Amino acid sequence: MRRAPWRPPFVVFMANEKSILGEALADLAPYYRQVIFFGLFINFMVLTPSWYMLEVYDRVIHSRNALTLGMLTGMAVFIYLVMESLEWVRRKMLREASQAFGDALQTRLFHAAFEARMKVVDFPIQQVFSDFRAMRECISSPAILALVDIPYVLIFVAAVFLIHPAWVDGAGRYCAAERDCRL
User: Fold this and answer.
1) Between vectors from CA 30 to CA 13 and to CA 36, what angle results, nearest 5°?
2) Rounded to 5 degrees, what angle do the CA atoms 30, 103, 142 make?
3) What is the rounded CA–CA span in Å between residue 62 and residue 53?
4) Residue 35, number of CB atoms within 10 A of its CB
5) Among candidates 137, 106, 140, 113, which has minimal Cα distance to 127?
6) Distance CA 27, CA 24 (A)
7) At what angle do helices 66-119 and 142-162 cross, to 10 degrees?
8) What is the pTM of this model?
9) For residue 14, what is the DSSP state?
10) What gap in Å lies between CA 84 and CA 89, rounded to an integer?
11) Three-class SS of residue 4?
12) Cβ 47 vs Cβ 160: under 8 Å
């Protein structure tokens, strides 16, 4: 008995598949620009606990002023509320991007899968729609937000390092020593 040569499984090809998918992904660019823009402010607001603790230990502990502590706490809570509101807006933008992506490709994908099913009886049509759903879910996933935030992490870790008391104290001592040397 002779076996038939192995052939790869049938794959759905849409006319101009790169341009169709490329256009659908290019249409998402405005959504992602807004997500990145809001990410700058959100990640800046993540520095709130560091700022809060610096202010509490610098101003409140020494003065023992409850009004200052209340104002700092109120400002920190307000910043957290704004940060969470912006995060909610970012997640909503990603959901809208996912919906726009689905709307752009859903009809074309359905017709291409239907035609493929008519040509090949055992065509895995469920797999096509499952892959499409996974792609839509990926566009709006929290992992995308994490990837967008990676560049900001490096910037703000450097900022926290620069405002660390030991670094500021060392820089202050260096500047004081330089002034003493010049005199």
Assistant:
1) 115
2) 55
3) 13
4) 21
5) 113
6) 5
7) 150
8) 0.69
9) -
10) 9
11) coil
12) yes
- Tally of CB atoms within 10 A around 98: 20
pLDDT digits (tens, 9 = 90+) for 150-178: 988 888 778 777 777 676 677 677 777 67
Residues of the chain with pLDDT under 50: 6-13, 15-16, 183
Say if residues 79 and 48 touch (Cβ distance below 8 Å). yes
Angle at 37 between CA 106 and CA 50, to 5 degrees: 130
CA distance 19 to 105: 12
The three-class DSSP label of residue 6 is: coil
Q: What is the pLDDT of residue 30?
A: 92
DSSP 79-140: HHHHHHHHHHHHHHHHHHHHHHHHHHHHHHHHHHHHHHHHH-TT--HHHHHHHHHHHHHHHT
The pair of structure tokens assigned to 6 is 């192995």
- Angstrom CA distances, 43 to 93, 153, 155, 157, stand at 17, 8, 10, 11
Alpha carbons 25 and 48: distance in angstroms, whole number: 35
Please state, in angstroms and rounded to a whole number, the distance separating the CA atoms of residues 122 and 162: 63
Q: DSSP class of residue 141?
A: S
Give the tens place of pLDDT for each residue, 141-152: 999 999 988 988
